[in-house]
Amino acid sequence: MSQPAKGPLVLVDRNVDPEVARTIACTGYEAGRAASSPDTVGEALRLAAAWGPKLPRPGGGRTADLWSVLATLGSVDLTVARVMEPHLDALAILDEAGLGDAAFPRAATWGVYAAEGPGVRLTAAQMGSRWVIDGHKPWCSLADRVSHALVTAWVDDTTRGLFALDLRQSGVQPVAPEGEWVSHGLPEVTSCGMDVARVPARAVGAAGWYLERPGFAWGGVGVAAVWFGAAVALARRVGQHVELRPADQVAQLHIGQLDLAVSVAREALAVAARDADDAADAATQEPPGLVAARTRSVVAESVEKVLTVADHAMGPGPLATDPEHVQRVSDLRLYVRQHHAERDVASLGRQLLAAGPGSPW
Question: Cα dist. 186→203, 219, 286, 321 in Å?
């Protein structure tokens, strides 16, 4: 196999056709142009709408290609990746629910809002043949910029459904979060609350379907692919730093540590991609939720290792004088906190123990 295209390219599975690699690299170049735009979020949303119908869906036979696109975006600019990832996830959810392009405007841009907060909730009531949404939804990233969203809402006291909501309706009002938005990481990807007053919405799947569907697990791994791409970019930055001086044994140690962290994360993602594409062979498969939990934890731990090694290898200089490096570090530290650290690892252990007696290995 000939060498894949150079440039802004991060592959989850290196055994890829060179033409596919070049196509993925092109997404990286486009992401770079969006990142340099005065309105990075707006350009990223434009790219999301343009690319969304063309990119593969998780579990459709080309999951590694999709996650390589997400990793490449993450290596170029995390703001662009953070804007595009939920849009692609929303399209995958709609496809899984059997709702094609004709159901919504082709130029729609999407968020996915499933967070809950204390003392507030979004509720859904069926009125005749339609659903009506009421209440408040917290933590809605870019609700003031995207045109549509998939939102979870309570259909009764114990069950949530998923609904497609046109955010341009008069009954939808983004609400600024309490306190000033002070994040140095992903500063343009602001989150707000959302007040919804008796707004019609379209049900996406049956009540409870959103969390039960197989694609839920693979969507979460797509986020980890973005983290992975950013970690690769940091590792490459360390490599550039080491090349500027003779590499002593400590520098060699740092490069070795980075290789281990990147290689473990890449292999975990590649295995998960194969599992997603082979999901029909359920007899030999681990549950998707278990694979996803393991993969996200492996990638998150690798990312944190890369962040630490980069700090140790390069010292304070790049953190004080290299704006691109500083922003990538700040963005990635915030983004990877979507992984709940020890709590998610404990959840993985709980799933393994619940699978039955005996060692899971």
Answer: 31, 20, 35, 19
Residue type (1 letter), 183 = S
Give the C-alpha separation, 288 to 275, whole Å: 8
DSSP helix/strand/coil, 282: helix
- For residue 48, with 0-12 CB atoms within 10 Å meaning exposed, 13-18 middle and 19 or more buried, which class applies? buried
CA atoms within 13 A on the CB side of 251: 13
Reported as type and span, the H/E element at residue 225 is helix 215-243
How many Cβ atoms from other residues are within 10 Å of residue 118's Cβ?
Answer: 6
Long-range contacts, stretch 260-267, CB < 8 angstroms, 24+ apart = 261/231, 261/235, 261/302, 261/303, 261/305, 261/306, 261/309, 262/228, 262/231, 262/232, 262/235, 262/302, 262/306, 264/298, 264/302, 265/228, 265/231, 265/298, 265/299, 265/302, 265/303, 266/11, 266/12, 266/228
- Measure the CA–CA gap between 81 and 79, rounded to whole angstroms: 5
User: 75-131, pLDDT tens digit by residue?
Assistant: 999 999 999 999 999 999 999 999 976 778 889 999 999 999 899 999 999 988 889
The string of DSSP codes covering 49-71 is HHHTTTS--TTSS-HHHHHHHHH
Whole-angstrom distance, CA of residue 95 vs CA of residue 80:
23
* Residue 173, beta-bridge partner list: 195
For position 178, what pLDDT does the model report? 67
The span from the CA of 333 to the CA of 359, in Å, is 34
SS3 percent helix, strand, coil of the chain, rounded to 5, is 55, 15, 30
E strand or H helix that includes residue 211: helix 209-212
Q: Counting beta carbons within 10 angstroms of the beta carbon of residue 12, is it exposed (0 to 12), middle (13 to 18) or buried (19 or more)?
A: buried
